[in-house]
Amino acid sequence: MARTPTIREVAKLAKVSIGTVSRVINEAADVTPHIRKAVESAIEELGYVPNAAAKSMRMGRSRTVGCILREINIAQLGGFVSTAQNAFMEAGYALMIANSEGRRPREIELLRSFSSGQVDGVLMGPYTPIEGEFEEILRELPVPLVMIDRDQPLWCDAVYTDHEGGTHQATSHLLRLGHRRIAILTGPPQLHPGGARVRGFLRAHADMGIEAAPELIVAESFLRDHGYRATSSLLGLSKPPTAIIAGGIDMLSGVLRAIRTRGLTIPDDISVVGSGRNDLSDLHQPPIGVVSWDQNEVGATAASLLLDLITHGKREEPRRVIIPTSFNPQGSCMPPRQAESRD
Amino acid sequence: MARTPTIREVAKLAKVSIGTVSRVINEAADVTPHIRKAVESAIEELGYVPNAAAKSMRMGRSRTVGCILREINIAQLGGFVSTAQNAFMEAGYALMIANSEGRRPREIELLRSFSSGQVDGVLMGPYTPIEGEFEEILRELPVPLVMIDRDQPLWCDAVYTDHEGGTHQATSHLLRLGHRRIAILTGPPQLHPGGARVRGFLRAHADMGIEAAPELIVAESFLRDHGYRATSSLLGLSKPPTAIIAGGIDMLSGVLRAIRTRGLTIPDDISVVGSGRNDLSDLHQPPIGVVSWDQNEVGATAASLLLDLITHGKREEPRRVIIPTSFNPQGSCMPPRQAESRD
User: Fold this and answer.
1) CATH number, position B140
2) Are residues B246 and B120 in the same domain?
3) Is the Cβ–Cβ distance between B220 and B188 less than 8 Å?
4) Is B223 on the interface with A (CB under 8 A)?
5) Is residue B39 part of a domain?
6) What angle do CA B63, B138, A15 make, to 5 degrees?
7) Closest Cα partner for B249 from B196, B290, B205?
8) What is B129-181 written as a DSSP string?
9) Whole-angstrom Cα distance, residue B40 to residue B100?
10) Which of residues 143-182 of A touch B (CB under 8 A)?
């Protein structure tokens, strides 16, 4: 490219306004596919580089933000990633994502890799409790940090989901249907999603003066394999649960596999609640009831908090944004069959 | 941290050999959970930084590789990402992933962002045809490049999947069952997975001397929405297909939704084949037959090609590795009901 083409030339070639070119570049929703195509063809033909990228190259900064997640290949994270990425791109930042697989050495290695000048800010949802040496590493990060779905540490900006409220709703619904042996499978209580879900579960029982069965609370891991193993062993109890709440965004498949392996039918033999809508919960017959929330809102909020920190520096008071949840029981929740489950 | 702890101190504290600490750091499979936990505790207690990361910090290089995919939140990419990441981490590189959403301006912006010194190599599966200006940008990348599931351009190292062979198998199976109106939905023919699937589909017909119905070949997009829309309109034809091949790794859900909306049952009313096993294909009743391949092998191969290029520089002859596919019809493929479908 001998000469850098301008946005004006792109607009002229595509026969649209400069504002329209900008909306296409910023991937605004209000552009018709026809117009988008015309503008993208013009951009391609001229070899036009959108301003933000050009600017970042001139500035010589990384113009990149990093995001560390346990596992990125979870369909439900699609809304989070795409919304956050759009917000960052609009502001001229690329979003790079890395898998921690929930291993602390890897989390630390990725943080060090990011903080050696490769990113301007970090989004993270650590999988191991944030304390001691690990908390120190986070505190000493040379770039701003926003926690994703973690309510700790308190000194950090965070966006997290009201899993407590959603699990309270789901548990209350099951209790009202007559279930008295409800199991909840989720991650360790030290991590927000696990702790919050167990609190909502216990509070729903307490609100109705019903005692929760401690052996049915399995707060160990968010993984689908945990869903499979825990469900298998719970179904083998002499008094098995009549309902299961899968408290992890990719745990449902493990729970469903274990139920199927045992030859049980949903909801006749057992009621099931998942965490977050996905293809599996929607296309199961019957559709699985879920505690859900807006992953796009999580992504938009996280991006906006981090961009603000990058642009304006640290605030005196960290900000905490809580994303609401709702519960839709679908067809997977019915009164328990056995009379003995009411006691 | 006043002083940098050594691997020897970690081994001493965890009461294991140095080799075992190294195996834990490199996440070898042959470490028991008990030992792993002991070593990780020791690493944490001492604040030990594994060698590779320490080395990269001394060297002042990025020790990072970038990967650009259309959409990363596809469950089936989990094996690819985790295997590639393990291989890179073992070699001392962090893997950063970015979503292109299949948009060329974004692909270009990410490539520029990566190549401004932020990564030592790039894995990519472009979603737009590799030609003209775009091919030039790829050619002039200052770091090595390996193509993921693309057979173009020929000057580049690539690892791609034998979608042609798998689709040939699936199509042949459906033809042998008596289907004569088989639809295939996949991406544009200029991109390897789309073009390869259509070739396999046509070759299976040709092998049996049967003419494929051109109106049933919809090679436009890999997206699930395309699966939904194309299936809906195909099912509205006066002679609808009796079998559908969903030729995209996240297209199956769209196809299943459209079939369900129309009130049809699999396999009684229509046979269905998906691309790649996932929770949805496994847990559907009946399980959906799929063309599948080893995503771990794709990840391991891609990482090994790129690490070799980073370490030893460009080879004279680009290397092309083809990953085999297989077809398992499961319970979703049956002979067509209507007699008129045989002609």
Assistant:
1) 3.40.50.2300
2) no
3) yes
4) no
5) no
6) 125
7) B290
8) ---HHHHHHHHT-SS-EEEES----TTSEEEEE-HHHHHHHHHHHHHHTT---
9) 35
10) none
* Residue pLDDT, tens place only, B98-141: 988 888 888 998 888 887 767 899 999 988 888 888 999 999 89
Contact assessment for residue B322 and residue B161, using Cβ atoms and an 8 Å cutoff: yes
Confidence of residue A175 (pLDDT cuts 50, 70, 90): very high
Number of domains forming the structure of chain B:
2
What interface predicted TM-score (ipTM) does this complex get?
Answer: 0.74
CB contact under 8 A, A73 and B71: no
Lowest mean pLDDT among A61-65, B4-8, B323-327: B4-8
The dihedrals phi and psi of A239, each to the nearest 5 degrees, come to -115, 85
- In this structure, what is the dihedral angle of CA atoms B303, B308, B313, B315, given to the nearest 10 degrees? -100
**Token pair belonging to B259:** 């079939």
Query: Domain limits at B126?
Result: 59-161+296-326
Sequence-ordered alpha helix ranges (H) in A91-181: 104-115, 132-139, 163-176
For the segment B264-293, what is each residue's pLDDT rounded down to a tens digit? 999 999 999 999 999 999 999 999 999 999
- Cβ-in-10-Å burial (0-12, 13-18, 19+) of B19 comes to exposed
Q: Are residues A201 and A336 in the same domain?
A: yes
Mutation for A interface: B67, B280, B281, most A CBs within 10 A: B280
Residues 256-315 on A with a CB inside 8 Å of B are 256-257, 260, 279-280, 282-285
Angle between helices A224-235 and A252-261 (to 10 degrees): 30
